[in-house]
Amino acid sequence: MNAQEQIILPLDVADEQAAIALIEQLESVTFFKVGLELFTSTGPKILEVLKSRQKRIFLDLKFHDIPNTVAGACRAAARYGVDLLTLHATCGKEALKAAAEAVQAGAADAGVKPPKLIAITLLTSLSSRQLAFELKIPLELPEYTLEMALMAQEMGLDGAVCSPVEVAQLRQSCGDDFLLVCPGVRPTWAQKGDQARSLTPAQALAAGANYLVIGRPITAAADPELAWKRICEELVAVT
Ligand SMILES: O=c1ccn([C@@H]2O[C@H](COP(=O)(O)O)[C@@H](O)[C@H]2O)c(=O)[nH]1
């Protein structure tokens, strides 16, 4: 896989028309993320749009509920034949285990390949300060994210979502077969926005990320195609 195929572009737009416009504008992007805004707006129709164009799909619905409900949602989502699916590690062990089993069952029902199920360790918009003072978590941030990733791995998940700042530590502790997907990635020339823990694309890949989720540095740029090409060129220069 070349570095360009390791970039996932989030379709954080309001409707199907806006999503199709982005997909067509960025024709060399192979992997797209459908998140809460677009899926709530279009439902599964957008997944068919992406499949008909042979795109890979990260369905980032970040489930967070009791074990029975999470398992039901994962079973249903796995039937869509997507490549990646998320839930929050903070659902707890029982829910993570039930979710891991449910994606296998859902995919088997539909005769599709099961998605890689990956757990959110700690949203990349949150800082150490917020972890301590708002969420009242009495662990240092690196230790907390590692605990979340190890719990997900123990419960049979395929990987975790983490910020690029923690990815080297997670890679070292979770091994090479555990998928690490990093949002919060920012080229030096892009605004951080609401991302609290970020590194550049080259730094994130060098630290051990399998995939980078890069949205607004591309989609909010004056020329999204140029921003995409610039990121790809920066990665080629260091890989
Ligand atoms: O911890 C997380 C989990 C998911 N995301 C999602 O990634 C993209 C990032 O978009 P940018 O525009 O590059 O900030 C977005 O869809 C988030 O929902 C995340 O940022 N952090």
Spell the H/E element sequence.
EHEHHEHEHEHHEHEHEHH
Give the fraction of residues assigned to helices. Answer: 40-55%
| Strands side by side in the biggest sheet | 1-2-3-4-5-6-7-8
Q: How many structural domains?
A: 1
GO cellular component, one term: cytosol
GO molecular function: orotidine-5'-phosphate decarboxylase activity
Keywords: Decarboxylase, Lyase, Pyrimidine biosynthesis
Pfam families: OMPdecase
Provide an overview of this structure.
Homodimer. Belongs to the OMP decarboxylase family. Type 1 subfamily. Residues 6-231 form the Orotidine 5'-phosphate decarboxylase domain. By secondary structure, the protein is α/β, with parallel strands linked by helices. It has one domain: TIM Barrel (Alpha-Beta Barrel), CATH 3.20.20.70. It contains eleven helices and eight strands. The chain has helices spanning 16-25, 36-42, 45-52, 67-78, 93-110, 128-133, 141-154, 167-174, 201-206, 216-219, 224-238, and strands spanning 7-10, 31-34, 56-63, 84-88, 116-120, 159-161, 179-182, 211-213. Strands 1-2-3-4-5-6-7-8 form an eight-stranded parallel β-barrel, surrounded by six helices. Helix 4 links the parallel strand 3 and strand 4. Helix 1 (16-25) packs parallel to helix 3. The chain is globular and about 45 Å long. The relative contact order is 0.14. The model has no long low-confidence stretch (mean pLDDT 97). The protein binds ligand LLZGTKA7. Ligand LLZGTKA7 is lined by residues 10, 12, 33, 35, 120, 123-124, 161, 183-184, 193, 195, 213-216. The ligand O=c1ccn([C@@H]2O[C@H](COP(=O)(O)O)[C@@H](O)[C@H]2O)c(=O)[nH]1 binds at residues 10, 12, 33, 35, 120, 123-124, 161, 183-184, 193, 195, 213-216.
